[in-house]
Amino acid sequence: MKLDRRSLLGLLGAGATTACATTPAATQAGPVAFLHGVASGDPDTRSAIFWTRVTPADPAAGDVVLALEVARDADFGDIVRRSTGLRARAERDFTVKHDLDGQGLEPGSEYFYRFVAAEAISPVGRVRTLPEGATPDVVMAVVSCQLYPGGLFNAYDAIAGLERLDAVVHLGDYIYEYGAEADDYGMVAGQQLGRTPQPPHEIVSLSDYRTRHAQYKTDPDLQAAHARAAFICVWDDHEVANDTWSAGAENHQPATEGDFAARKAAALRAYYEWMPIREPKAGAMKQAINRAFDFGDLATLAMVETRLTARAEQLSYADLTMTAEGTPDVAAFEARRQDPSRDLLGDDQRRWLTDTLARSRAAGRPWQVLGNQVVTARVKGPQIDQMMPPEQVAGLLAGLPADIRPQVEASIQLFKLGLPFNLDSWDGYPAARERLYAAFQAAGVEPIVLAGDSHAFWVNELHDDAGRRAAVEFGTSSISSPSPADAVGGLPLGLALMAANPQEVKFCDQSSKGFILLTLDRDQATADLRAVSTIMAKPYETRTVKRYRVARTATGLGPLIDG
């Protein structure tokens, strides 16, 4: 049977699906609750994806029938759309997504929405549709990496309180897969805060991934951010397992955890159920989620996928062999790293990106923004021993925890060889990065690249192998995931990375937690690096770590200006 998009979404339970059923399904008559908030995502000029999850008193009693109401006011005195007959089904973990199919809403307008099921009414959310035509400015919050046991989601509370916000761009690591053992990732903070992952083991099955998504969406700060504005999301690695690539992951052991393809399928199914993101079109791979959003005549945001579609397996410094003279064989390692076959995007996605950026430029939009998971800049490992005398380095090393000290000592020696800081980033795929920069040049654009994953703030200028500036990059720190500097005490890691990479790294903060507030207007882009004072308590304070501006000129982007 050939299915069009509407039929496919119906069978997946993404909208009002009564027309797809050959026999009416049983429905709940008992009480229900909305324990996981509401969310919107993937906005267009006249609609968005509207999401919630219904918790029934008796999950075995059948579907929950509910309605979506969209209004111009928070009191719902002026309802502009009411979609009835929506069904929360057990086969989709009682989650519901509904798309208004481009009808009923006005471009560039803010609306309020809620779901109603029997006597229960959900929390109220806000959503702004994409503008059409003349658009003076756009404001986006850029976020990444929220580890539930790692700390409180204070940054989301700060985002929820923003007076102006058009969308939240989430660059991945929305959940983490680790368990709740004392030595599991983030559990030092998790034990202090009573934030224990559920289920308490590493997640592998569909039920596991659903339970973990459900736990994250009970967090009140995350709920508040979702209710504040539409999210535009892409996954990174931890939505499946650490350091995923197209056919595996560092944190997947087939002998004990089964087939990776099955784990990936379970993770993606739960992701699509629990996230306010459009379902893949009929015939498209679920892992191909590249898509674009036009903000009137001002900007295009292109979201790419760098993990599951085309990524080659990561290299590791454990692969660094020794020469016959007993020295590290850097030349052999570099030959592997520079292998042209190593890729992140793949040919199909790269062609799509080139076409998307070119169309944006042809339409006269001054800004092209790339939503990308990992840091793009060339970042050599830091030369700590060149920044301070040996006795000071020895003192800092002596103050590190015993389990961390050998790794830091080894890294200091390794980075003397001029090798990259992070092989999981674009630095592990330099030929692919050159192809990305060639795509920018072919499209005739110098974009703003956004990056997550690193748990650090970055402001970078990106140059190709010939030295031509290809783009500027703003990397956001984490919401709550541990930053590299958290583990190395007083070592000035951010300053060391800036010193080692003066051409590309203009600013690096390896300790703050927070988000980027990106504002685009006709003349310039402004990136405010916003940090929260703590993730271990409330109340907290928010500060701007740095503000960088870049002007749009007749020939491309101007210089990055600090302040």
TrEMBL record:
InterPro entries: Metallo-depent_PP-like, PhoD-like_MPP, PhoD-like_sf, PhoD_N, Phospholipid_Metab_Enz, TAT_signal. SUPFAM superfamilies: Metallo-dependent phosphatases. It comes from the Bacteria. Residues 1-21 form the signal peptide. Residues 140-529 form the PhoD-like phosphatase metallophosphatase domain. PROSITE patterns: PROKAR_LIPOPROTEIN (PS51257), TAT (PS51318). Residues 36-129 form the Phospholipase D N-terminal domain. CDD domains: MPP_PhoD. Keywords: Signal. Gene3D superfamilies: PhoD-like phosphatase, Purple acid phosphatase-like, N-terminal. Transmembrane segments: none annotated. This is Alkaline phosphatase D family protein.
